[in-house]
Structures are given as C-alpha cells and as structure tokens.
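Batch job 17 of 40 flagged for manual review because the log was empty.
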Amino acid sequence: MKRQGIATRLLERVCKNAAQEGFDFVEAYPYKESSYQSSDYGGHFEMYKKAGFHVLLEAEQGLVMRKQLNKGVSK
C-alpha cells in the first residue's frame, strides 16, 4: 500500500483535528537516513516538508519537524 497517498491523507486529518481541538502545533520525528525510515514508522522527510512542516531540531538519529497550526503562536 506504499506510495498511494494514505499517509499524507492521515497526516492532513491529524493536523486538521489538532487545529480544531486548539493545538498550536504538531511535531513529527522522521529519520535523516532513508535506511531507517521503514523500521519504526518515522515517516519520510519529504512528506512532512510538503505538508508544511519545518525542521526544528536535528538529533543524532533523526529530525524533529514542526508545523504551526494556529496563527499568532510562536514556533
């Protein structure tokens, strides 16, 4: 079921629901190395980037990416 847009649709729904519930941002933790991406469901960097996430922090094994949901809140 890979490459059919399912994860993207789920991510869009999570962001929409979180915004409706008053959350200010959503974080994701994709791996930097593509070899890790299938092991723990960290997700693909490009999917988050296309969805409006930015890199907040680079850790040893992966990234912390964040998307601001509600305007007027600092990142």
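Reviewer: the log was empty due to a logging misconfiguration, but the result itself is present. The first strand starts at residue 25 and ends at 28. Unflagging and moving on to job 18.
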